[in-house]
């Protein structure tokens, strides 16, 4: 068997490459083992994800994108900013840099194609009849040309060396004068939810894969997790004509965010929309039956069948890159609250991958301000600095809009200010100060606030 016949597969989570010719001897996989012959319980030896999270790794020699790749060790004019990640945070950082300096070199490395789209749209796109093509606002090639940056798509970052100012990727090593980490966060998938049986709607590829499976027919879909994303997806799928079962370990939807009276109003709305809510249920496993159905079992012994299962069990920041580079990490990459600089010199981070005082920052709203602060710091320009404030939370359940100002606290006291069929208004106080304001109902966000929210960090 010649080397041309051997195939390679790359881990979508960490970039490790499984080479059939080499195998994985440390895990008991002998050299020459075909990928399809690897046992299903084999996991990535680097990050621990399952076999289904690997995909074929092959770059065609005539891929036009290769022409734009910088060479190993490339660093233009001694000033080259490398951005890891081509989500909203990565592109916003590139725009902020380019608006301040038309000449500085910018290289963007991304594990996907890098096409630009608005991630919040994914949780309301099914009922709109959207497709992958309609969700893409701008192709990565077009965006990179417009900003005059070097795009390195379909490439995984496997290591960072702050001392050498280098980023190691699956396509070579890049040198940088400044590094910006915009790697985002990945779904937190419990061991009881096998990746091969559950969809994760956290990026365009995951959403488009599910959309193709359920488009055109009414399907029975089980969504595990009734947090922000799970509730939005349940509402969207039901509006698109699907039969939805929403499950959560909590007794009510959005129970960790809303007071009980508001969660009950949301539950009532879901029931009226035909969404079946199974609260207080902990999933013990998901498997595929011989007829292709997904079967979900709970610790209480309950069994539910569906055409598709979606896991909406939260997000976590992959700590491998950060810890490997010696960066401080606390549920996210620890950054300076003003400059967004990490614990390493000339390394910055923004978006879903960062945390402030151990609290992850997973909202779109602050990203533009974070990118602006980073751009000024990278270019040594004067800037007042980023000031982190809890963003406004808008739950995109169209039949029952929810608007939350400020971050609720476990020990805060909720009070009802208005309770009508059109809107429920509440505020939460702590030590006599209003720290959060909630509106839920058709008129949410359309009325004047009667209470001033205290500034909280």
Automatic annotation (TrEMBL):
Which SUPFAM superfamilies does the annotation name? FAD/NAD(P)-binding domain, Rubredoxin-like
Q: Which InterPro entries match?
A: FAD-bd_OxRdtase, FAD/NAD-bd_sf, FAD/NAD-binding_dom, Rubredoxin-like_dom, Rubredoxin_dom, Rubredoxin_Fe_BS
Note the coiled coil stretches, chain numbering.
none
Q: Name one GO molecular function term.
A: iron ion binding
Pathway(s) where this gene product acts: Hydrocarbon metabolism; alkane degradation
One Pfam family name is: Rubredoxin
| UniProtKB keywords | Electron transport, FAD, Flavoprotein, Iron, Metal-binding, Transport
Q: Which family does it belong to?
A: Belongs to the FAD-dependent oxidoreductase family. Belongs to the rubredoxin family.
Q: What does this protein do?
A: Involved in the hydrocarbon hydroxylating system, which transfers electrons from NADH to rubredoxin reductase and then through rubredoxin to alkane 1 monooxygenase.
**By what name is this protein known?**
FAD-dependent oxidoreductase
Species this protein is from: Sheuella amnicola
Name the lineage: Bacteria, Pseudomonadati, Pseudomonadota, Betaproteobacteria, Burkholderiales
